[in-house]
Amino acid sequence: AIGGRRITAETPVEGAAAPQGGLFDEPPASDGPAFALLTASVTGRERERVVQGVASSEVDLLVGTHALVQEHLEFHDLSMAVIDEQHRFGLHQRVALKEKGAAPDVLIMTATPIPRTLAVTYYGDLDVSVLDEMPAGRHPVETRVVRTSSERRRAYDLVREQVREGRQAFVVCAAIDESNRLEVRAAEKEADRLATKVFPDLRILLLHGRMRPKEKDERMEAFRGGEADVLISTTVIEVGVDIANATVMLVENAERFGLAQLHQLRGRIGRGAHRSYCVLFDEADPSNEEARARLEAMVRTTDGFRLADDDLRLRGEGTLFDIRQSGMPDLKLARLAHDTDLVRKARTDAFGLIDADPDLQRHPELRAELERRFADSIDWLFHS
């Protein structure tokens, strides 16, 4: 869209009445594509013009959030859909977006594929490109798990050391008020505790999802501008936050987060040239082996694909022929995470059989078995 024009409330759309007497009575000349933005904050007249532009083909490229999957948005001819942060979209939402076109190509992107998506790549039904290099100049984030009070004090000292060097820190909490049914540290209470008892000499800001968008933007900009040393937040900072000066991430009750979410949170630091540190506070019962396994996986690697593989082993791949994206699989005996070689061999044999007999005319028993087992659910496989 570089060099293109953006569709806004003031931009006439083909088939719509142009505003009178304005600077934009005629579309500005441009050799590039027309593009538009659609999010929940785009409302009223501007939203109507974007929707009309998409339906009439006046808009060539539409960038947006979950607003793109809403029912009343119709594309003139959707030929390609790019889904970033794919793990944040449910299967129904991905299906809804894909069905807005006749047969669009779909590119999904994520640093942490969910178990079902990773399973589909193992089965060979998704072509995969892996970007396994860090941007130039960045250092891998050092990750530690903290379980004792003395280790917690050292984590707080680490924050002070980094602030003295001119850096900043995040503290992430799982809830924002004490009425939350999970017994976790509430961000509001934690902000008060840290500001008065732990870091009374540091500048503290609080950010959570119940704030109005304008207030959230103002606080994030204040933190980005260096007006605070520590930002205490819920998982609202999980994606889309790029502050190169932030070098410490403390995660309270890390045992309550999934691997994908922990990896995304860790990705908020280490975005500059400075060494960065992620500290995971574990308050789980020692008998909670699964929680410990998740946190140890975070310490072991910063590779999102390897973490996704660990997630697959811990949670299961779910079912390919339904909407469950983790949990018990379709396979009765084999387990994808442990029998990958067998799955690859089966896939090779299956492709060879289909290449030689596309309609399975020479294998009527196999065709009948496939139709009996999967006739009502095979479509799910193609909506990953």
Q: Largest sheet, order of strands side by side?
A: 6-11-10-7-9-8
Please outline the major beta sheet. 6 strands, parallel
Question: What is the helix/strand order?
Answer: EEHEEHEHEHEHEHEEHEHHHH
Oligomer classification:
single chain
Termini Cα gap: 27 Å
Query: How many DSSP helices?
Result: 11
Q: How would the global form be characterised?
A: globular
Low-confidence stretches: 9-29
Q: Quick one: how many beta strands?
A: 11
Q: What is the average of the pLDDT values?
A: 80
Considering DSSP H and I runs of 4 or more, what fraction of the residues is helical? 25-40%
**Beta strand %:** 5-15%
Radius of gyration: 25 Å
Helix/sheet category: alpha/beta
Notes on the structure:
This protein is of the alpha/beta class. The chain contains 11 helices and 11 strands. A 6-stranded parallel beta sheet has the order 6-11-10-7-9-8, sandwiched between helices. Helix 7 links the parallel strand 10 and strand 11. Helix 3 packs across helix 9 and helix 8 runs antiparallel to helix 9. It starts with a strand and ends in a 10-residue tail after the last helix. About 5% of the residues have low confidence.
What attributes characterize this protein structure?
384 residues; alpha/beta; six-stranded parallel sheet; three-stranded parallel sheet; 11 helices; 11 strands; globular
Give a brief description.
With 384 residues, this protein is of the alpha/beta class. The protein is built from eleven helices and eleven strands.
What is the strand and helix layout of this fold?
Layout lengths: L4 E2 L27 E5 L5 H13 L4 E4 L15 E4 L7 H8 L6 E4 L6 H9 L18 E5 L2 H16 L3 E5 L14 H12 L5 E4 L5 H12 L5 E4 L12 E6 L7 H8 L10 E5 L7 H12 L3 H12 L24 H17 L7 H11 L10
Parallel strand pairs: 1-2, 2-3, 4-5, 6-11, 7-9, 7-10, 8-9, 10-11
Helix pairs in contact: 3-9, 8-9
